[in-house]
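Narrative of activities, Objective 1.

The group set out to show that a structural description can be obtained from nothing but a protein's sequence at a throughput compatible with the screening campaign. Below is one input-output pair from the validation batch, recorded exactly as produced.
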Amino acid sequence: MNKTYTHKVKINKELSSIRLDKILTKKLEKLSRMQIKTLIKSGNVNLNGFPILDPSYLVRENDNFEIAIIKPKEIKYLAEDIELNIIYEDDDLIVIDKQAGIVTHPAPGNETGTLVQALLYHVKNKLSDINGSKRPGIVHRLDKNTSGVMVIAKNNFTHMNLADQFKLHTISRKYQAITWGVPSNQTVEGYIERHKINRKKMSLNNKQKGKFSKTEIKLIRSFENSSLIECSLHTGRTHQIRLHLTSINTPIVGDVIYGKNKTSKYGLDKKNFNKFLLLKNFQRQALHAVHLGFFHPTLKKQMQFDSKLPPDMRNLLDLLLKY
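Output recorded for this entry:
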């Protein structure tokens, strides 16, 4: 049986007259607003010793809330002998070149064969545990079908330091992507939040809802109906590059979630129809993390790591040049 723990919140004058679900979402950062609403409606929130079932209740100064939160059962994942492409390693961290097709950490539907299990095998379970047993060592992540440079923390000190650098956006990150269409050199900005209908997707808006995001886009080469581009991240939000490129009508080739309905028009271009078929049949999103730079917490120096485009993306570029 899962254990529960109680979180207490006392309302001061500054917080008064705000909805209860909004207050608790701010105070309990690991829970979504929907999860908070469920807790309230399920009778897991007490106001001054009595259950309150109304998420829209406007809190008052000196209100005392007690929230009973179910502590999920920790699952220990077994190490697995999965090949890793290690760029750099020391006592504090590992920098890897992640291959496409591998999930970063276990999740429903992907309980085995993940990067976490490969790392546990390599370091004999010696990874940071700030994120619990599901995501040991994972400071940041790449999507399953995105390849490239990642840094992994071996201990909690390194993890916290790197996490702060990501939070302050002092880490340098560059990606290269093959896109439909030809974007101009530009900077894309907007706010990213969870999609209201499809919870596996994110959405972009300019209404300051969600988290601010900013990507600098540079055109490297045009293939008339497609391009090789480089993206420099000023922020690092979930699906940021994929959303930003779709928003300017140049979605990433192979991205089956974002911009899929914007690619069929390229099939009408008879001159570049062979290129269209090559792009249409590419088996994953053509996105690769080519650069990662950060300040090493222990060595006290700036470190830079680069990764060449993987064979599948290089092969596609060669074929685009041919046709």
